[in-house]
Amino acid sequence: MSDLAAEVTAALGRSILPSVIARGAAGLRVVAAEDGVVTLAADGSPGAVLPILGRIEAQIRAAVPGVTAVRLAPDDGLAPETTADLAEAARAILDAEINPAIAAHRGRVTVAGATGGWIRVRLEGGCQGCSLAEVTLRQGIEPLLRARLPRMTGLTDVTEHEAGTEPFFSPAKR
Question: Does 53 fall in a domain?
Answer without folding.
Answer: yes
